[in-house]
Backbone:
């Protein structure tokens, strides 16, 4: 990849991925899962839709973060990169844990608190949705030696082999095999969906996409082949989608007599990985065709999307606490939550974050002179 030119397709994909996370959290109070705030009624259809998009919204975000890491590293020494990552990730993480996330805890356990400040006196701090920033920081620092290696001449043989593999139509798909196999194996020992770094199945899964983004960004040949084979990857994505839903919807009593529970879970995790992997290959290819164009709208959204991510879940939880009490059906509540939360996030960003130097730092934004 040419690291001297801005990749507008990656900017668009980053915005799309974070908006996908936002829409996912909008649906959480209504899909029957264990969210911070839950509606009295739930929608099975909504849950069936959300489980599909769960398979690639975060993988795409981690992969784009991996490519962005290479672009950021290309302009800095490893020490400058470490300082930049610490400033843009750790500062918002600590600020968020202390001041952004506590309202979620307060409204989730509303009846347990005598006052809001009890959260601070009892030290009930959580990362909640900011686990992504925590994981991203740790992974970014761990992969510094890998990026240095890939930038050096020592990596030529390694990169040449990968470039040759990517020139075959099935090459990128074969790159997903280790993801499928190792995820299924690790899930047997770490079966939960916990976002903790110590949950090795989840950490490996997201790190694999992150490192893949690094590898893709180190070679223009990789990028060209992703574009070249985009139609093939799209076909595989459609097939994997059909397999995913076919397996998801099949009644348990039809497979229980023939397959053990552990093997059925292996198949499930394999299909989830295949779906996520084929999606990112497809979107990276088509993104070069349709998204690699500058626009003023993209420039503004790309600058705002990080604070948007930090704020979004807290605003959703606070608003949902009151909206779920309304005597309305689920679609009406969803629409009200969408409009009210989006407008509030934009309002906070525009008038309390964007104009001020200190809040820009706290929310991981660049200084005005660095905007591009």
Residues:
């Amino acid at each position: 990849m040419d690291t001297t030119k801005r990749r507008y397709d990656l900017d668009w994909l980053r915005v799309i991925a974070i908006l996908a996370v936002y829409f996912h959290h909008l649906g959480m109070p209504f899909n029957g899962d264990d969210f911070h705030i839950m509606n009295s009624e739930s929608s099975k259809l909504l849950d069936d839709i959300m489980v599909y998009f769960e398979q690639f919204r975060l993988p795409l975000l981690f992969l784009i973060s991996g490519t962005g890491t290479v672009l950021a590293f290309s302009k800095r020494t490893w020490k400058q990169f470490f300082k930049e990552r610490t400033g843009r990730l750790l500062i918002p993480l600590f600020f968020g844990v202390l001041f952004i996330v506590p309202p979620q805890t307060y409204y989730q356990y509303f009846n347990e608190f005598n006052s809001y400040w009890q959260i601070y006196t009892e030290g009930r701090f959580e990362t909640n949705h900011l686990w992504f920033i925590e994981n991203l920081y740790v992974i970014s620092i761990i992969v510094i030696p890998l990026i240095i290696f890939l930038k050096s001449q020592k990596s030529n043989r390694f990169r040449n082999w990968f470039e040759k593999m990517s020139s075959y139509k099935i090459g990128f798909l074969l790159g997903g095999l280790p993801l499928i196999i190792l995820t299924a194996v690790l899930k047997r020992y770490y079966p939960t969906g916990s976002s903790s770094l110590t949950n090795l199945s989840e950490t490996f899964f997201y790190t694999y996409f992150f490192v893949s983004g690094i590898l893709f960004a180190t070679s223009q040949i990789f990028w060209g082949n992703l574009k070249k084979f985009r139609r093939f990857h799209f076909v595989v994505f459609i097939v994997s989608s059909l397999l995913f839903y076919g397996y998801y919807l099949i009644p348990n009593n039809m497979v229980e007599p023939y397959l053990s529970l552990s093997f059925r879970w292996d198949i499930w995790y394999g299909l989830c990985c295949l779906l996520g992997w084929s999606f990112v290959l497809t979107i990276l290819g088509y993104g070069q065709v349709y998204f690699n164009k500058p626009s003023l709208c993209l420039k503004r959204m790309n600058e705002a999307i990080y604070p948007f991510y930090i704020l979004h879940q807290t605003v959703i939880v606070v608003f949902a606490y009151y909206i779920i009490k309304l005597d309305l059906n689920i679609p009406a509540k969803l629409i009200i939550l969408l409009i009210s939360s989006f407008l509030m996030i934009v309002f906070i960003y525009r008038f309390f974050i964007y104009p001020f130097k200190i809040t820009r730092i706290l929310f991981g934004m660049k200084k005005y002179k660095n905007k591009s």
About this structure: The mean pLDDT is 94. Residues 8-174+211-238+278-370 form one domain. The chain has one domain: 8-174+211-238+278-370.
